[in-house]
Design a protein that fits this description.
Distance between the termini of chain A: 72 Å
CATH architecture of the domain at 8-108 in chain A: Alpha Horseshoe
Radius of gyration of chain B: 22 Å
CATH architecture of the largest domain in chain B: 4-Layer Sandwich
Shape of chain A: elongated
CATH topology of the domain at 8-108 in chain A: Serine Threonine Protein Phosphatase 5, Tetratricopeptide repeat
CATH class of the domain at 8-108 in chain A: Mainly Alpha
Strand content of chain B: 15-25%
Structural class of chain B: alpha+beta
Strand content of chain A: under 5%
Shape of chain B: globular
Strand order of the largest sheet of chain B: 11-10-9-24-25-26-21
CATH topology of the largest domain in chain B: Purple Acid Phosphatase, chain A, domain 2
Oligomer: heterodimer
Largest sheet of chain A: none
Helix content of chain A: over 70%
Number of strands of chain B: 26
Number of domains of chain B: 2
CATH superfamily of the largest domain in chain B: Metallo-dependent phosphatases
Helix content of chain B: 10-25%
Number of helices of chain B: 7
Largest interface: A-B, 66 and 65 residues
Structural class of chain A: mainly alpha
Largest sheet of chain B: 7 strands, mixed
Distance between the termini of chain B: 42 Å
Amino acid sequence: MRLHRVFVLLLVVLAIAPAVRAHPSAAHRIELLTREIEASPDDPMLYLRRGQAYSNEGMLDRALADLRRAESLGDPALVAYEVGVALYRRGDLPGARAAFDRFLERFPQHPPALEYRARVARDAGDAASALADFEAYFALQEDPNPGDYLSAARLVQDIEGGGAEAALRVLDRGMAKLGVIPQLQQPAIAIERARGRPAAAIARLETLAPQMGGSPDWKVEMGELLLASGRVEEARARLGEAGAQLEGLRVTAARRTLAERVESLLAASLRGRSDVDRRGSEDAP
Amino acid sequence: MDFGRRWLGMRGAIGASWIGLASLCGSVAAAEAPERVFLQLVTPTTAVVKWRGGDADQACWAKKLSDLRKRNWPHCASGVSTEGGHLEAGFSSLAPDHDYYYILGAPGPDAATDVQQRFRTPPPNNKSPKDGNVHIWIVGDSGTATETQLRPPLGDGVSPTHPGEAIEVKEGFLAYNADKEPVDLFVLLGDNAYIEGRDSQWQGAFFEIYPEIIKGAPVLPTIGNHEMGGADFDIGVLFGFPPGALITFLGGTSDSADPFSYDDGDPSTVDDGPPYLTIFSLPSGGESGGVASGTEQYYAVDYGNVHLVSLDSQLSNRDPVQRQAMADWLVADLSANVRDWTIVFFHHPPYSKGENHDSDQEQAEIDMREVFTPIFDAYGVDVVYNGHSHSYERSYYMGGHTGLSTTFDLATHAELNASGAGASGQGSEAYPQISATSGADDKVVYTVAGSSGKADELDPCNPGEVLGCTPADWLQHPAHYLSLPEKGSVVLDATATSLTSRFIDVDGAVVDSFTITR
């Protein structure tokens, strides 16, 4: 903890605590820094701060010029994070990657740099590297917000050749840390359904049963997944339970919609049952 | 999420866990009083008491106070050390719907008994308590006991601005409640420790203001903007000055989604997240009913026939993906909820025309309205409570409105009375939980109750002035049945057939009320 605090303090002192933060206008801040640079033209921190301000305003050429100047005047590794950010914003993925590599070599447990490098890897189509950096990032978090995992999963999900697996790994890592929660398990179920794995989706939905299994919503979702798996009679049983339960609960707009879904799925299940029956008779000797 | 600015992503543990159950009872009686004692996580069969200071290292519980004076009384639990120097003890194997007393320290003839250290466990499932009523006290923006003038040059940074006003509100409530049952639940609507939500401010504005309440009723808080420290703020532009002319650190102005961005404004300290998350132990794992949220920033609680949800309009709401995760969780939680009544609370009001806080203009309020009110409508939420604006504003029984105040139409969005006016919720105009027009539980009453520590007063804005003055449409949101610039708090009573909300002023008088029936 002490090392962590020292590290945080170092960063605060070196890089992220300019005199003016948050809401004050960026133009004014840049103007102030320019005046300070005129007074102290060899101070690398001033160039770093102004480069950061330019970068945040999308003035990337000016940002990089300042950051390069800071590199030449001081320790380049301390500037590498901001260089990586600016290069990433300019779309220079190899350059950004190299900058974040330099920074992480010096500060391997720096969460924002790990996050940024994961995004670089994502944009480069490198699912394995993106996942590795996200996992390292989350390993450093003691109590992250569930949305952090969701955000990371979305970032890696669309990478061709392994994005879905990487997204599931991120979501599962989240649930290993935070417990099984619907805001992470439901996206995982959606991924399994989208890639045609209803059995895997059912297994995931079962993990929500201790908290939600008594609700008609859970039963309807399970019925739908069972139908997709060809388990028609089980599906009908679940849907029947949900329909009966809904009749006893006070009416809400959501429950009305759910009741309509039950009717629709039960009708689909009848078609599914006839399909199964037909296949059964065709298979008969 | 903002991937690029989370520099302070590492920290010590937040989110205390408690594991201390039955243990040996043998230490000496507590001689030194703790500086804070409060209840958390009360379920039909368990409870957690949390304290700081004093020399007690355990807590004991019993149905009869006299049992705690028995030297060998066995029902005791060790205090487990948690963040912020607190101790927590978990009471187990409690009987549902029963009164319990507890002490800190050892049982015996010299035990430090305190009749205020009494709580009632809720009944199981969807039942009303034995006395037929769940009695809830709600305060918003009550943290003014530690509010001081702004820092120079805007003020001296030291002088109190609202001395004694939070106590006035409490005294009003106690006068009203003198012949009524003790509080079952104590709900905080945020901004309960001005100005930066420091631990010392929580001590002065909360623990020293409500000690007798929080010993006996579990505290259910939500995160307000003043729980999240502050930021350097270009306040001059609000007074018509050029950008950058008047920049100052200002409590309550953080707009980060990251709890670790918490800044208490004291450059001599290294901040490690908001004290709010250190002080309270909240049911992120569904320990108190409802669906697990995985975070203490938002959570659900069941208490008898009431389901309560605390949302995070300050942090999770600032980031689109975190907000969506919170919304997805809310849908899952409300889908599984079958309690008679559903109460939601968070800090930023979706409908308000308060001084400095206009729900047509503040993004946090707009996002809460656009993303969450449709969920409230669809999933049977009955009442929503917010703070932030330092006034009392109470809506009609309404639904389907996510736009600016100018788009609110009484006939379209509100339950009407026989005359075609907005129904009052009083007497013969009590709101039926199932709307007569839609046949569904799809309406909500929204109440802003952010005047439990101060109330804004009429002070018309000069041209160009937008802060610290009342604009022309102050307290005139068309969705509101009543708006009052008065200090007070809310009492909510839930029976099997009715839910009644009352606004209580500093004299203990009921200034407004409405009832929903089922």
